[in-house]
Amino acid sequence: MNDGTAPWEQATEFEVVFTFRVKQSSWLVQPKGGGTPLLRGVRPGGPESVRAYLVDAGPALDQRVGAVGLTSAADAEGTRIGTVSQMPGAMFQDDVWTVVQTDLGAFSAKPVGLASRARHTPLTWGFTENVADLVSRHRLRFSSGESKGFEVGRRAGLRSQYDVKVLDSRVNRLLVLATVVHFDSAYGDANVGKLVPSITGLFRR
Fold first, then answer.
1. Is 26 within 8 Å of 47 (Cβ atoms)?
2. Where are the beta strands (DSSP E) in 37-171?
3. What sign for the dihedral angle of Cα 189, 191, 197, 199?
């Protein structure tokens, strides 16, 4: 039975693919395995921009549903949904993430899989994180005392492509996407698609 909830609000597994240009950055959310896009986020500026992505849904992707940035998400009326923060971990320790959704507490992150857990250990000596991202996935699972949360994983390779799994239907998808945006800013430098827009932008200043 349809309870009036939009398809993107019901999605439990989906993909996020980023595209970077000199004057615009964007991403598309589509169901796992492909299909009709559920959401599109667009912001002015290239890879270095810190502007929020304006997020649209609907069959024509022309219905504004909110905005997501590096540190927060808001609904279509501008009401803040939650916040995202990340602090680098000490030597051989994981980075410290805090994602806060008011009704579900503060989510913290744990690496999932051997490759993700090994990023801050002596096993990675001699390798940069960019090299690691070319050959292995990097996954984090976010949970709180009140919620099983969600999981975000960057696919191996040169592009900023992410897989998301929502483990608790109460988790706001826009806040999850703000986490993905922050994740890509923090760990997505292996994406060669960011290089040309960044260099071209320097010459245009």
1. no
2. 39-44, 53-57, 63-68, 72-75, 80-87, 96-101, 105-112, 138-144, 147-154, 161-166
3. positive
The continuous run of DSSP H or E covering 110 comes out as strand 105-112
The answer to whether the CB of 155 falls within 8 A of the CB of 163 is yes
164 or 204, greater pLDDT? 164
13-20 and 161-166 strand pairing: antiparallel
The tokens describing 149, both together, are 């949360």
Residue position matching structure tokens 């696919």: 155
Q: How far apart are CA 139 and CA 117, in angstroms?
A: 9
| For residues 136-159, average pLDDT | 89
Say if residue 160's pLDDT is above 80: yes
What is the helix (H) or strand (E) element at residue 139, kind and residue range? strand 138-144
Measured distance CA(102)–CA(63) in Å, rounded: 25
First to last CA, the chain: 54
Can you list the alpha helix ranges (DSSP code H) found in 47-172?
Answer: 114-117, 129-135
- 101-118: pLDDT as tens digits: 988 999 999 988 555 544
Residue 138 — very low, low, confident or very high, per pLDDT cuts 50/70/90?
A: confident
Whether residue 64 contacts residue 40, with contact meaning beta carbons closer than 8 Å, is answered with no
Type of residue found at 30: Q
